[in-house]
TrEMBL record:
Protein name, entry field: Probable transaldolase
Free-text function comment from the UniProt entry: Transaldolase is important for the balance of metabolites in the pentose-phosphate pathway.
Keyword annotations: Cytoplasm, Pentose shunt, Schiff base, Transferase
PANTHER family the record matches: FRUCTOSE-6-PHOSPHATE ALDOLASE 1-RELATED (PTHR10683:SF40), TRANSALDOLASE (PTHR10683)
Pfam families, A to Z: TAL_FSA (PF00923)
Amino acid sequence: MKFFADTAQVEDIKELNDYGLLDGVTTNPSLVAKAGGDFLTTIQSICQIVSGPVSAEVAATDFEGMMREAAVLSAIAPNVVIKVPLTLPGLQACRALRAKQIDVNVTLCFSANQALLAAKAGATFVSPFIGRLDDINLDGMQLIHDIRLIFDNYDFDTQILAASIRQPNHVSDAALAGADAVTIPPNVIRALANHPLTQKGLETFLKDWADSGQTI
Ligand code: E4P
C-alpha cells in the first residue's frame, strides 16, 4: 500500500520523507491556502523532496481551463499528477491528459458510480473521501470496499487512493478494504507509530539496560 502525505507543508513533507515513509504527496486548494506559499513554487519544492507522485489540483472548472492549467502544472516536474474534480469536464480532461501519458488523480469521489466513471476515463488514481462521507453519517469505508470489488470485477487499472483520512483506524481499515494507496495528514502518519505498550516497554528496557551497567 502506498502512503502519500496529504499536505502542502514542505517542512512536514521533508520530515516524513526522511523517515522513508512517503511514496508521494497530495495537495488540494485548501491545503495550499493553509500552507500559505505560492502554489507553483510549493509544488516545485515538494517535487524536489519526493520522487513519487505529487498531486497538484486544477482550479478551472471547464475542460479548456483545466487543460491549460494542467500544462503549467505538468511542466513543473515529471512526477506531478494532475488532480481534476469528478465532474463531466474533469473526466473529459482526465481522458485527454491520459492520452498524453500524463498521470491524473480524479478527486472528490463520493460514490461507486463516480469511481466507475473515473476508471472508464482512464484515471491513474481515484480519490474517494472517507472522512467527509463519515461526517454526513454515511459509511466512507464501505465505499472503498465497493470500489475495490467493482475494479476487480472489470480489471480496471485505476488505483484506489483513500482520501479524507481523519484517524489512524481509517488507514488500517482502508488497507483491509484493499485500497492501493492512502493519503494521510502528517499528524495521523505520526500517530500510526504510537502505542502505549511500545512506549511502556521501551521505558522498561532502557531502565533495565541502565541498571545493568552494559554498553554497546
Ligand atoms: C486529498 O486528496 C483530499 O483533498 C483530502 O484528503 C481531503 O481531506 P479532508 O476531507 O480532510 O479535507
